[in-house]
């Protein structure tokens, strides 16, 4: 099976720089958030009151009760992508580390490829077993060029194939994939 476009709107040409977020749980679809023209993008929750902000693959909004309406901001500056928590209740975490205390704005944090970003926390029921609301958790890809976008699409496809394998317990027939992005090759052989 060949790699597919990671987004359902392939006719929209990507703009750079962009931040791609690939879900690590089933809380959202992959996101491609454009950061061109020095814009700051809000990460937040759909309020459902006005229905003017609908979570989509090309914005920073999520349908999750653990994400604050104004949770975080992301932006690009001088070839680097940054994030900061803007006084959220349930926190913004990078690679497991919370950026600031509840209700406190964080310092900017530089995002790098393969960072794990988490918005909010899992809310557990009174039985201490059932998850009532899931945190939003994603793998980060910073995209500045067409090569980065191609690598991101392949990574998205590979992650999808690996998830299918985990869910079904079956492995694809002898196939190999090698990905590079100015980093050592990642090689996977499935037998």
UniProtKB/TrEMBL annotation:
Question: What PROSITE patterns does this protein's entry cite?
Answer: FHA_DOMAIN (PS50006)
InterPro entries associated with the record: Cent_Immune-Sig_Mod, FHA_dom, SMAD_FHA_dom_sf
Question: What are its GO cellular component terms?
Answer: cytoplasm
Specify the domain of life of the species encoding this protein. Answer: Eukaryota
The FHA domain is annotated at 41-99
Please state what the protein is called.
Answer: SMAD/FHA domain-containing protein
Q: Which source organism does the UniProt entry give?
A: Suillus discolor
């Amino acid at each position: 099976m060949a790699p597919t476009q990671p987004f359902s709107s392939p006719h929209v040409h990507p703009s750079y720089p962009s931040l791609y977020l690939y879900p690590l749980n089933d809380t959202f679809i992959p996101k491609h958030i454009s950061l061109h023209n020095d814009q700051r993008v809000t990460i937040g929750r759909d309020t459902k009151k006005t229905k003017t902000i609908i979570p989509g693959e090309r914005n920073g909004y999520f349908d999750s009760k653990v994400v604050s309406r104004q949770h975080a901001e992301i932006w690009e500056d001088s070839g680097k992508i940054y994030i900061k928590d803007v006084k959220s209740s349930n926190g913004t975490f990078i690679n497991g580390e919370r950026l600031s205390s509840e209700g406190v704005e964080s310092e900017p944090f530089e995002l790098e490829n393969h960072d794990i970003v988490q918005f909010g926390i899992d809310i557990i029921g009174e039985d201490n077993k059932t998850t009532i609301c899931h945190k939003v958790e994603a793998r980060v890809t910073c995209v500045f060029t067409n090569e980065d976008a191609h690598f991101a699409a392949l990574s998205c496809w590979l992650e999808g194939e690996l998830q299918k394998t985990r869910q079904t317990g079956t492995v694809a027939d002898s196939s190999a994939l090698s990905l590079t992005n100015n980093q050592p090759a990642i090689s996977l052989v499935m037998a």
